[in-house]
Sequence to fold (408 residues):
Amino acid sequence: MAEKSIARSKYDRFFFIAGLVILVLGVVLKLCQSMPALRKLYDLPIFLMIIGAVTAIKGFLATSKHHEGEVVFSRKTFGSFLTNNAILLAMLVLVIVICVLQPRFMQIRVALDILTQSSTRLIIALGICFTLLIAGTDLSAGRMVGFAAVISASMMQTATYANRFFPDLPQIGVWIPIIAAIAACMAFGALNGFLVAKYDMHPFIATLAVQVIIYGTCSLYFDMPPNNSQPIGGVRPDFAALGQMRIFAGNGFQGISILIPIAVVICVIIWFILNKTVFGKNVYAIGGNREAAVVAGINVFACIMCIFILASCLYGIAGVLEAARTAGATNNYGNGYELDAIAACVVGGVSLNGGIGKVSGIVSGVLIFTVIQYGLQFINVSPMWQQVIKGVIIAVAVAIDLTKYRRK
Fold:
């Protein structure tokens, strides 16, 4: 491929025009959808309108900034684009195949289900990304989710439920068990941070040890009489509403799960912390070069402690929301969630070598895994094959990450 270049302004203008074309195409298809041949498109015209509008707005904003310079197209830039977006491109191909095999996949309802399923996973991934940014990890995340779910659900049962966890507990405010569950997780997060920061213990070993401690503690709590390890149910409606309430429902529209705006708000907060605060800059600095961070005067001990405590707070929130969403809990809740979260972060561009990663990448990584899992279930692919595909995606993502790291 011969090297070519175009002015940046023309490049931005192309996206603006392309977005308008896609938007108009969606409008035309929507207006003509009464035709029998186009009914099987379901909500595809709406998706095209959304994609077109977003692309046009992005192109317009880029054009209005009057960027100077040129955009170079060559074999090298093309290969770099494929490498950096390999997983995303593979997902797009898979979505197209699923839509061809099962057109019902092109529905707003399906998209909202995917976003709902992604919400708590995204909160966990946002917590675990802090530990990955300092070239660490957190294997205790899933068990903290389960512990928070058990604590909150056990204190939020209706007074008339036959098998109450605390038979004599009065009907307390909904925020009390939520705070208790999150605080319990933060205590274990502080233990994680202390082991890593004080004794320079590798996060893999430290969080593995704490993972076992949390599961044992949760199981002991879950086995307390009169519950005796029975699944916790009968949660109060006001608590269940935290995970099951839908907004904007009506006129045949099922509404949007409350979990989606909660996840969006948390995304914005984490983005602000990582990009607009001194603490966020310190996280990247420690992950990039810990020795240089010490020389620069960063309090590495305090920063690592805050990282694990903040991450555990997010795990606690996710656990509470999971208990509310499912209206119950057991001590096995959250098992393996940390592995899915780590995989989503890596697929989203968070480097295992630390110092590299963005919130937008984490969001895309979580959505990629959820879309693939939901889509494969939608076309009745065997769960065993789903695990094989997930493993291949993780291996490819890590290989791409290591390749980029070696080049640098």
User: Anything to note?
Assistant: The first helix runs from residue 8 to 31.
